[in-house]
């Protein structure tokens, strides 16, 4: 089962990808998109998939081949490390990517990441049950 916000995120990132110039900017948008998809895949209501560690290893290998701007590359590496950690919420991981996305890419990409972070938050009833 995929996250309900995935199609909206895909549409936003596809638009940003089409508008970006070739080179590091486009690679950066694509790299952020891949990390957003992995984070939304682990977010409620769908929960952590059984193949998440395998997915993250493949994502790590794929990101190494992309030429994203250096500050963004460091943020993506930290995001992947956080996604490997079992106690870090996907919404937190995504919220940490908003500023580097705005700084290195564009405000439109940062807005798409922020929207995905909001969508990855658990529902209020689910938050109360975990407290």
Write a concise synopsis of the structure shown.
This protein is mainly alpha-helical and 131 residues long.
- Structural class assignment: mainly alpha
Number of helices: 8
Q: Please give the alpha-carbon distance between the first and last residues.
A: 26 Å
The quaternary state of the protein chains shown equals single chain
Globular, elongated, flat, extended or rod-shaped: what is the shape?
Answer: globular
H/E series: HHHHHHHH
Mean pLDDT score? 86
Question: How would you explain this protein's 3D organization?
Answer:
This protein has 131 residues and is mainly alpha-helical. It has one domain. It has eight helices and no strands. The longest helix has 19 residues, at 24-42. The chain is globular, with a radius of gyration of 14 Å.
Q: Tags for this entry?
A:
8 helices, globular, mainly alpha, single chain, 131 residues, 73% helix
Topology of this protein?
Elements: H1 6-19, H2 24-42, H3 52-64, H4 70-84, H5 90-95, H6 98-104, H7 107-120, H8 124-130
């Amino acid at each position: 089962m995929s996250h309900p916000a995935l199609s909206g995120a895909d549409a936003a990132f596809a638009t940003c990808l089409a508008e970006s110039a070739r080179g590091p900017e486009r690679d950066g948008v694509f790299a952020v998109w891949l990390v957003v998809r992995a984070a939304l895949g682990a977010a409620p209501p769908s929960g952590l998939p059984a193949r998440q560690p395998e997915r993250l290893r493949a994502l790590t290998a794929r990101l190494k081949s992309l030429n994203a701007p250096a500050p963004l590359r460091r943020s993506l590496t930290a995001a992947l490390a956080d996604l490997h950690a079992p106690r870090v919420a996907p919404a937190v991981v995504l919220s940490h990517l908003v500023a580097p996305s705005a700084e290195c890419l564009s405000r439109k990409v940062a807005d798409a990441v922020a929207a995905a972070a909001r969508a990855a938050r658990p529902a209020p009833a689910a938050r109360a049950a975990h407290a």
